[in-house]
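seq/struct pair 1
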Amino acid sequence: MSGAGKRLPWGRISHGKVETPALVAVVTRRKDWQILRERHWYRIPVEKAPEGLNRVQFLAFYQTAVFGAEKWAVNYYARVKGMRRVLRSEILPEESRHPRANQFYYQIMVSDLMPLPRSVPSKRWRRIVFIPTTLERLMRAEEVNDLYWPARLRTNFTGR
């Protein structure tokens, strides 16, 4: 592909620059934030996991209304250190009666949370589940819209 850039494993087209796969995920409960901070892991239901999850090198976290002054923004990120497939009841035994206790989840182990150089707010209401992006895009973003890829690149990410 001379002159047109090359396809990277994450599905990004690069023009001589390596881009680092990242994923923005939502945190809706203070308990989940405490797990991230103290136990250094995040969970994603296997059936809801975005394609390409195994290539993600960084997770960033969109915080919802329960987070007060930090709400509706991506403020923190962490390096992915590993991932395993487990039953929800294994990682959250205190929630053994939860309706999804016997469903499989990816438990993603992460480094300490690191603050982004600047908050990445959502300037309008939107339902966010996951945003496949890159670390470089995350570091440059001024608002959540800056994290999204143009449709042609997003198609390369999913292979569809």
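seq/struct pair 2
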Amino acid sequence: MAPMSTRIHFLGVAGYEITWADKRLLIDPFLSESPAAPVQPDELATIDFILVSHAAFDHYGDTAIFGDMRPIAELDRPTIGLLGCAQPVELFAKVPGPGTFLTGEMSPLEAALAAEFLDLKVAVARHYLNPGQPDVLEFLDLVAEKDTTGQRIAIAPGVGAIMTVATTDGGETISVTTE
């Protein structure tokens, strides 16, 4: 099987631009009002697909950890997972009303367990602006702790970082580089 390379550009919060072959996917684009977006909408190349994943003022359609993740691992064998593990504290003021944000889509533990349930090779943190935020750091630690393969790579890129994930040997060999 020929090597495959996927380019992942972190746009901040939950936003990613993913390119492979001749395709371009934009996930949860929150650009115009983001305090840290590395690009604006009119600066993006033509997008083939847009995925909007959860119900927040900057997205649409919530999810969390669920039992069917284990069959997904067996049937579909995903390699890379973008896992919401935090709440971007820089955006708290944009959501009016009483109360306190407790977590993002999943807690750091739930996101680490999702990486395990899905048997991911690469677990990428999402839903933050600062990779040094405590929930993000906890996610990185928990991914390693819950990893039964001993080979899972956990990443929390900085806003604007571009990662290239290359697979060879039918997905058995993974390499990740960051620009």
